[in-house]
Amino acid sequence: MAEFLIGLGIMAGLWVVVGVARNKQLRVPLWGWFLTVIGFGYATFVVMTILAFYREEQYQAILTMGALMAFPGLVLGVFLYRFAFTQAPKSRSETLKQ
Amino acid sequence: MFKNEVDRRKFMQALGIGAAAAGMGVSIPQVVAQSKDGNPIVEDKSQYGKFLVEKLINGDYPYQIDPKILGQPGSASPDRKVFEPFEVPEETKEFFRPASVLDRERLVEKGGKVPNFTRLDYAFKDASWWCHNEARGVFPWYTENGGTQELGERSRPNWRNLPPWDPQDIEMSWHDASLAMKRAACFYGASQAGVAELNHLWIYAQNSEPIEEPHQRPADQQETEIDPRRYFPNAASGPQTRSRQRYIPRDLNRVIVMLFEEDYHAIANSYGRLASAAVGIAYSRMAFTASTLARFINHLGWRAIASGNGEGLSVPMAIDAGLGQLGRNGILITPKYGPRVRIAKVFTDMPLVADSPIDFGVDQFCQVCMLCADHCPSLSITKGGKTWDGLCPRNNPGVYKWYVQTDSCNAFNDFSCSNCKKVCPFNKPNNFWLHRLIRRTILARSRSLDKVMVSLDQMSGYGRDLQAADFWKLNPCQTITGREPV
Ligand code: SF4
Ligand code: SF4
Q1: For chain B, what are the domain ranges?
Q2: Greatest CA separation for chain B
Q3: 8 Å CB contact between B250 and B203
Q4: Which of A22, A36, B258, B369 has the fewest CB atoms in 10 Å of its CB?
């Protein structure tokens, strides 16, 4: 059940990211989407690991391993936000209309 | 001589194949690669958990001996000066007092309320030993009339006067018969079993059949008095006279070695009484299982002698039977249960097919991991390198290994401590995919990778104490074992 909910949460997260990119009309390069999918895969891995530690009652491991494993994810997130999910430069016609 | 080299490239391929196959949920071939020495690297979930194991099929062993130094080991025999003076650590000094003093203090003076040593914990521990102590006749060490004195007689098959069983009668090979004996061992209660050709070097000197004829020792060696209470303070019997002629006949050239897993949570209570209960119940299972298996073999018309700790060294026999390797803590490390096992054996002349010894990277891992040495309350485990010489009179020099100060270990807390099992990184349940994933990397024998794993293990808080009060609150049937999750 927990695994199902985690899968659902991750899919919902990906859905939200796609939605936001559309609404804000962001032009995300292909490598950006590729890294995003990898990032979500990694997030699944981290959450599943934390769940397993929880089931093993290793609460210290949740904190230390969780923090350790979350760090690369955070770096990837910031990188994608900064360089992949950026506002597309306005096209020439749009600029002329103004 | 064993060369501990694995072809890294092939190993990585094996790792990849195994991980991919495991991820897809498909079964993978048992032999996944070959080592540089031509030994197969195998994966066998039921035997080795998720470890990749190198099978030493070329007559190699995962240890080195110097035949010029190595003699037959002595056991706790009365003519040896068993306890030499040793350094007692200041922090744990109180635990070196005699058992009777410790027990009285905890149970009477403090009203049985000392955490981890309450009356509940004590009663639990003593009860777990009951079957072993009552049935100690099944272990020759303890038999009233001199135990091993009658080994030759006791081992003789006499069931319905039938000739020795031949597996070919029912179209079985001796290989199948060996499998059947291991199956029987597990049916009777062992967690795992293996077969080795018996190396009589591991038999205690006083249980070893003299090579010269007649099979008599000089008169002054024939009888001796032994007081079991000297070694086992709770032993029921007083001094006994034992003949020194007891021996394992040399034609008993096979040994079936059995492992008995100890409870993960109870061992985590070390050095509280619950850890001793885990040890005690394993001994009780050993007594029942080893004697029943010996009886089974007798009924098949072959000779068999059941043995617990007596008669010979269990650890090297278990290594020879392919059940594990020796760790820095001086005990057997198994792939599936780590160091959390007890060992019993049955000597027999049934011509069983021996298993190959294994190597799954323990030696290299122990070189960088010091956790057991760091957590040993009696300072019995060395932080240094391996040596050929022992540290105390009870050590048997001539094996290149980490020797353990057994005197100080035994004197600590009335023989009751399992810290070196509790903290060992190999002591992990087999129920978590991350442990299984890490197990697959151990055979890479990479110092840096091993160091990272030891650090992560510590950071994650493994090997911590479990208070007895918390143990008693666990779900009654909750257990984390090395067994595959059902
Ligand atoms: S059982 Fe292990 S940790 Fe405990 S005193 Fe003996 S060697 Fe040290
Ligand atoms: S605790 Fe570490 S050094 Fe000690 S036996 Fe286990 S792996 Fe080896």
Answers
A1: 62-212+225-436
A2: 69
A3: no
A4: A22
Nearest to B432 among A52, A60, A68 (CB): A52
Q: Which residues of B touch A55 (CB under 8 A)?
A: 432
CA atoms within a 13 Å half-sphere pointing along the CA-CB vector of B307:
27
Instruction: Give me the phi and psi of B258, to 5 degrees please.
Output: -120, 140
Helix (H) or strand (E) holding B358: strand B358-359
Which residue of chain B has the CA closest to A51? B432
Residues of chain B found within 8 Å of residue A53, distances taken between Cβ atoms: 460
Q: Is the pTM of this model over 0.90?
A: no
Give the separation between CA B421 and CA B333, rounded to whole angstroms: 9
Please give the number of the atom of ligand 2 that sits closest to the Cα of B370: 3
| Sequential pLDDT tens for chain B (486 residues) | 444 455 555 555 555 555 544 444 444 448 888 888 889 999 888 888 878 899 999 889 999 998 888 876 765 433 333 344 577 788 888 888 888 899 999 999 999 999 999 999 999 999 999 888 877 655 654 333 333 334 444 556 666 778 899 999 999 999 999 999 999 999 999 999 999 999 988 988 766 665 543 344 444 444 555 554 544 444 444 454 454 445 677 788 999 999 999 999 999 999 999 999 999 999 999 988 998 898 899 889 888 888 888 788 999 999 999 999 999 999 999 999 999 999 999 999 999 999 999 999 999 999 999 999 999 999 999 999 999 988 887 788 889 999 999 888 988 987 789 999 999 999 987 777 788 778 878 887 788 889 988 998 888 888 889 999 999 998 877 666 654 443
Of ligand 2's listed atoms, the one at least distance from the Cα of B327 is: 5
Give how far the C-alpha of residue B129 lies from the chain's centroid of Cα atoms, to the nearest Å: 17
Instruction: Mark yes or no for CB contact A60/B480 under 8 Å.
Output: no
Half-sphere exposure of B253 (CA within 13 A, CB side): 5
Asked if residues B450 and B364 have their Cβ atoms less than 8 Å apart, the reply is yes
- Tell me the one-letter amino acid at B5: E
Question: B61 touching A, CB under 8 A?
Answer: no
Burial (Cβ within 10 Å: 0-12, 13-18, ≥19) of residue B131: middle
Q: Evaluate whether B58 touches B38 at the Cβ level (below 8 Å).
A: yes
Residues contacting residue B341 through CB under 8 Å, at least 6 positions apart: B191, B259, B260, B261, B262, B282, B324, B332, B334
Contact criterion met (CB below 8 Å) for B65 and B400: yes
Q: Report DSSP state, residue A48.
A: H
The encoded tokens of residue B187 equal: 């049916």
Residues within 6 Å of ligand 2 by CB: B 327-329, 333, 365-366, 369-372, 423-426
* 8 A C-beta contact, residue B146 and residue B242: yes
How many residue contacts between A and B have a Cβ separation below 8 Å? 29
User: Cβ distance B270 to B422 under 8 Å?
Assistant: yes
Amino acid at A26: L
- ipTM reported for the complex, 2 dp: 0.71
Answer whether B462 touches A (CB < 8 Å): yes
- What are the boundaries of each domain within chain A? 43-84
| Ligand 1 pocket, CB under 6 A | B 329, 376-378, 380-381, 404, 409, 412, 417-420
Residue B12 C-beta-side C-alpha neighbours within 13 Å:
3
